[in-house]
Amino acid sequence: MTATATAPARKTPAADAGRPLLEIRSLEKRFSLCGDFLEQLKFKGGRLVREQEYVHAINGVDLDIRRGEALCVVGESGCGKSTVARTVMGLLHPSGGEIRYDGTRIDDLSTKALMPYRRRMQMIFQNPYASLNPRMTIQQTLEEPIRLHHPDWSRQQVCDKVAEVMHAVGIAPDWGKRYGHEFSGGQRQRIAIARALAVDPEFIVADEPISALDVSIQAQVLNLLMDAQRERHLTYLFITHDLAVVEHFGTRVAVMYLGRVCEVAPTATLFATPRHPYTRALLSAIPRLEDDRPQHIRLKGEVPTPVNLPSGCVFHARCPHANARCREEVPALIATDGGARVACHAIEEGRLD
Amino acid sequence: MSTPNPAIESAPATGRWERFRDSYLLYSFKRDLVAQASLLIFVVLVAAAVLAPWLAPMNPYDLAQIDILASELPPFWIDGSESAYPMGTDAQGRDLLSTILYGARVSLIIGFGAVALQATLGVVCGLLAGYLGGRIDAFLMRLADIQLSFSTLMVAIVVGALVKAIFGGATFSTYAVPLLVLIIGLAEWPQYARTVRASVLAEKSKEYVDAARTMGLSSRRIMFRHILPNTLSPIFVISTVQVANAIISEAALSFLGLGMPETHPSLGSLIKSGFDYLQSGSWWITLIPGAVLVLLVLVINLLGDWLRDVLNPRLYKG
Amino acid sequence: MSLLEVNNLDVRFALRRGEVKALRDVCFTLDRGERLGIVGESGAGKSVAAFSLLNLIAKPGYIAGGSVRFDGQELTGMSDRALRRIRGHRISMIFQDPMMTLNPVLTIGEQMVECLKAHRRIARREARAIALRKLEQVQIPSPEARLDQYPHELSGGMRQRVIIAIALLLDPDIIIADEPTTALDVTIQAEIMALLLELCEKHNVGLILITHDLGVVSQVTQRMLVMYAGRVIEQGPTREIINDPQHPYTQGLMNALPQMATPGERLNQIPGSMPSLDNLPSGCAFHPRCGFAQRADGSERPACCTQVPGFVTSGNCQVACHMVAEMIERERIPAEETTR
């Protein structure tokens, strides 16, 4: 960590506009349900066998995040959207596939080799009540990442930087002496954003950053994130379940279901012409303010457990358009004319438009 | 069923003192008579023990001050007592009050020393096991299980007897205090390790730890700077219980003759030394130090109970 | 006379820092079969309002004043015994977390039968038959099998359906639903809300729906209350408030929704945050965040920061705001002058 890290080595967007900032390739993550080796041993048919069960949180996700965009990942609980975020940030090790940042593979780097990327990628968490260390003052919280990534900075430089980010997120300088629990949810989320911005990142993963906040505070935090994006040329990976926020905030949207991406499209396209049957059902379920009670598309049954994945398309059991092929063959993401990419046999075959 | 509390934000206090003054700790202390009385007695006992060389009428370690002719004198409220020895004397003619003060000092040193050792070992093991998980966790926790399956006294007796047999009684007497600290400290670390591990597991899943990890902080810094300060409450609570336990363990060992020698008595060895004279009517040699021991352990436990109620996050979120 | 009449309800929490007024001067009514939404942000007092109807406020909270009349009976001073006959029987509740109502160690059937037997003299078999019928009503697949399942064997959406079935068990007059779908996914939420709406309409059950989601309120309810810092600030027909909110806070809340802004543009945020209840500003509690109370030159409108606004009627709505009162006054005076 020397001069290379202190000078923000941000290339001009035009120079490598072609290559996405982050590439996720056939990413998989499964969690073992059984504990240690002894718990995996089971008697079956008179023989001792080792049996392992897994939760398949993500099963082959491909995503590109382009420079300067806000890619929103939406889906219902258990679809693996948070796992994608945590795997990208290195909080979880992928079980398969790879993640490339700016052309370099980062999922297998050592802790030390990852350090420069840690500065360039930052994360904002869902629960502002848990994401600040209750025993640290705001000043300490904000200074910590700066001192870590810029060990050669003087005390004055660190303080200046802290003051700068505090000003940027709209928190008063005298908050520094206080502790996180003295603030409301919205104020804490501002502090968390300030912590992420303190090391001048270029890429921010935001995992449901406004879900825990009240409506009027959500707007404040969303505005703050958009201002930061404009002023600091940030790229976002934004995880949420709130489709109204996606429509407002996202450049592109990826819809996930049971650990797979079923549709990726520019936001306007997705909301105007949702293609995948699941996307259609999801959009129709948003409670609208308008007078007319729109008929939402009712799906059969419930989301299957990610322990025993359905064969073929993960959505086939609930899909009104499923046929034999859907039950057997996993659909790949195919490009459609509207700029969207959809993983659906029915659309590929023209059974569904 | 609980009703939702309206969101109540405290008016922020600035200084450390204001923070303490507004704290729930002080508030509940002010309203709890038992805790106040316990703390008062505890402070008096500790102060008396610490200041023993200045408070005690005589020095029980100084053989020159001991008058063997004044042995087994009763305390002041019984006929035949002497005003120089308000609590009476023991079989060797030592002033019982002075001996108790010095003995309480030894008991407290061993108690706190052993707990400091337990806590250091236990906290480090608990942090490592909880944070790193996997094999390290399995290994440390099995080690703790094994340690717990031997009773403290059994380990202490075996080690004490071995040391006595190998190095002789004289060496044992010289190094009795550090040896007892070591024995009791080593025997009880799993209590800390388990408590700390449990709270580390709870803290580890909170997002501030994830935030520290995505920042790129080293595991050591995350463990000691971020997680440890947040597990202090349970550590404080078990520490009180453990100090009381360690004092009891020491007394038991001394009573068995494997603790402090009679020339350098703790409360436990005082009780033992008087035990032989219980039948002959000199009950005070055993019962007065016994009462002091009970009082000391009781107030520590009461304080611990109060602290647990105050710091219990399920009863009060703060 | 309405089925439920709440007048000047005052709820306080006796904390060590002093009394906190969690609810002040709350008035509303609910007719038979009517659906009412209570909207507000966390800490606005909407849940406290619902809990205090059945006197379910836990210590240190207590009802300091006002009245709750249900079907001609006064509930506030009622004995616990008498209240229990109303709770669950004539007024039932649905909570955000189904596990708050469901006992994890009893099967669904046992819980429903027990609930029926507690309120009615009824044979076990008969109770089971009623339970089964209610599970059918909430459209649970294979209801017979569900009766013998434990709560943890059901998914979140199914549990909430069971809760609705339990709430309907004794054919109540009113269901109070406290954020019933907040913990659920959008698609499940849509289904549960549709179900709740359908059942209320079919059985003519009144519904008090507490939520922070304006979309849900607009879809389900006929009238709504907007709460801020322990007070009702606006109430009226849901459509009118959604289409044309009068109170600056309601306006701000609506405008802050992402749906209300052009994608990619800044949202219209309300500055600041809701004051804590133990440190309320003087006058109108919203005035420090209100665009009307803060004049362009930086000064504050004196009425807003000294005087608690009373309700004025605007259309079919009641609004507690000095600005709205002033506007109505201004419209009225010229009208009177012309009639002279």
Protein described:
- The complex is a heterotrimer of chains A (353), B (318) and C (340).
- With 353 residues, chain A is an alpha/beta fold.
- Chain A has a domain at 280-287 and 294-353.
- Chain A has an 8-stranded mixed β-sheet, with helices on both faces. Chain A has a 4-stranded antiparallel β-sheet with strand order 4-1-6-7, covered by helices on one side.
- Mean pLDDT of chain A is 86; it is low at 1-15.
- Chain A has helices at residues 3-6, 37-40, 81-88, 111-120, 138-149, 155-168, 185-197, 215-232, 243-249, 267-272, 277-284, 324-328, 345-349, and strands at residues 22-32, 41-44, 47-50, 54-65, 70-74, 96-101, 104-105, 121-124, 203-207, 235-240, 252-257, 260-266, 334-335, 341-342.
- By secondary structure, chain B is mostly helical.
- Helix content of chain B is 69%, strand content 0%.
- The radius of gyration of chain B is 23 Å and the shape is globular.
- Chain C is α/β, with parallel strands linked by helices and 340 residues long.
- Among the domains of chain C are: 98-169, no CATH class; 250-339, no CATH class.
- Chain C is 36% helix and 23% strand.
- Chain C has helices at 46-53, 80-86, 108-119, 124-137, 143-147, 156-168, 186-203, 214-220, 238-243, 248-255, 302-306, 322-339; strands at 4-15, 18-30, 35-39, 61-70, 73-74, 91-94, 174-178, 206-211, 223-228, 231-237, 311-314, 317-320.
- Chain C is globular.
- The A-C interface holds A 76-77, 184, 186-187, 214-220, 222-223, 226-227, 241, 243-245, 247-249, 267-268, 281-282, 284-291, 293, 296, 298-299, 301-302 and C 41-42, 141, 155, 157-158, 185-191, 193-194, 212-216, 218-219, 239, 242-243, 252-254, 256-259, 261, 263-264, 266-271, 273-274.
Write the layout of secondary structure elements.
The complex is a heterotrimer of chains A (353), B (318) and C (340).
Chain A: H1 3-6, E1 22-32, H2 37-40, E2 41-44, E3 47-50, E4 54-65, E5 70-74, H3 81-88, E6 96-101, E7 104-105, H4 111-120, E8 121-124, H5 138-149, H6 155-168, H7 185-197, E9 203-207, H8 215-232, E10 235-240, H9 243-249, E11 252-257, E12 260-266, H10 267-272, H11 277-284, H12 324-328, E13 334-335, E14 341-342, H13 345-349
Parallel strand pairs in A: 5-10, 5-11, 8-9, 9-10
Antiparallel strand pairs in A: 1-4, 1-6, 2-3, 6-7, 11-12, 12-14, 13-14
Chain B: H1 16-21, H2 24-31, H3 33-50, H4 52-55, H5 96-132, H6 134-149, H7 152-174, H8 176-204, H9 207-215, H10 219-227, H11 232-255, H12 267-275, H13 284-311
Chain C: E1 4-15, E2 18-30, E3 35-39, H1 46-53, E4 61-70, E5 73-74, H2 80-86, E6 91-94, H3 108-119, H4 124-137, H5 143-147, H6 156-168, E7 174-178, H7 186-203, E8 206-211, H8 214-220, E9 223-228, E10 231-237, H9 238-243, H10 248-255, H11 302-306, E11 311-314, E12 317-320, H12 322-339
Parallel strand pairs in C: 3-8, 3-9, 6-7, 7-8
Antiparallel strand pairs in C: 1-2, 1-4, 4-5, 9-10, 10-12, 11-12
